[in-house]
Amino acid sequence: MIQQLVKQIEKAKAPIVVGLDPMMTFIPSHIQKKAFAEHGETLEGAAEAIWQYNKGIIDAIYDLVPAVKPQIAMYEQFGLPGLLSFQKTVNYCKEKGLIVIGDIKRGDIGSTSLAYATAHLGKIKIGTKEVSVFDEDFVTVNPYLGSDGVMPFVEECKKENKGIFVLVKTSNPSSGEFQDQLVNGVPLYEIVARKVVEWGEECTQPGSAYSNVGCVIGATYPMMAKALRELMPKQYILVPGYGAQGGTAADLVPYFNKDGLGAIVNSSRGIIAAYQMKAYEKYGETAYAEASRQAVLDMKLDIMNAIGGKQ
């Protein structure tokens, strides 16, 4: 799967993933009004508004980017109808040829982690049949319960040729409360990174420069990223924190290899809610999707200028 992601990054000439993290405050009023007229001010109405909003954005950007990253919590908050919108979004993105990274950040004890891995990457056995459930291409995984929480995902990756991005150094300000703590003089995030390399050795296809086991390193920590890039040469890096969280294109340089590959940068609200930003306010609510498209084009130019346009 990582080979497919790399191919699509090269084809699009855009190491960008769009975070489909909808909030009701992002959704234009005309979409909300139509959904509420059909379903009432209910969970079903909210879920329909989310789906229609997502569809507009996907239609506007699918030819520009290789991947999308729906954050499942933004859908779960609307209960079962919200999860149905998540599923519809995943399916529609795959129909459009996009790689789907499910931002689920799961990580639990063995049997529970296996159930998560089955739901999102694998197949569940029902009688004599095996059925895919959410069927993302990659998911994000929290490693802080140790190997027995991660290995079920690794095993599903091997069976299904799918991938994971393991949290190593996250972009949020308080991440250092745990991730930066020294263990025998070594930062905890570096210990996690070494385990990611170990897990990744089991998920590297013959002839591939990268493993199906990648990692997450926030754009707000470029100096740490430089050291971690050297430590994890075969790990693709999913980079949150660009734009709204303070990460700049210049900060991204250490995440990439000399060939311009090795990392994919996420932007969520900076793209999906672009029409609410001053730079794109001329588009207005009705052209929210066109604003998102322009935000992608601007992000691509910003990043490619920073890394030298080596795609």
Protein described:
With 311 residues, the chain is of the alpha/beta class. The protein has a domain at 107-264: Alpha-Beta Barrel (TIM Barrel), CATH 3.20.20. The chain has helices spanning 2-12, 29-39, 43-61, 73-76, 79-95, 110-120, 147-160, 176-179, 188-201, 222-231, 269-272, 288-307; strands at residues 16-18, 67-68, 99-106, 123-126, 129-132, 138-141, 163-169, 182-183, 186-187, 213-217, 237-239, 263-267. The strands form 3 sheets. The chain has an 8-stranded parallel barrel with strand order 1-2-3-6-7-10-11-12, surrounded by 7 helices. The model has no long low-confidence stretch (mean pLDDT 94).
The pLDDT mean sits at: 94
Strand content: 15-25%
Compute the number of strand runs.
Answer: 12
Q: State the share of residues found in helices, binned by percent.
A: 40-55%
What CATH architecture label of the domain at 107-264 applies?
A: Alpha-Beta Barrel
> Which CATH class of the domain at 107-264?
Alpha Beta
- CATH topological fold name of the domain at 107-264: TIM Barrel
Instruction: State the strand order across the main sheet.
Output: 1-2-3-6-7-10-11-12
| Main sheet: strands, sense, barrel | 8 strands, parallel, barrel
Return the structural class: alpha/beta
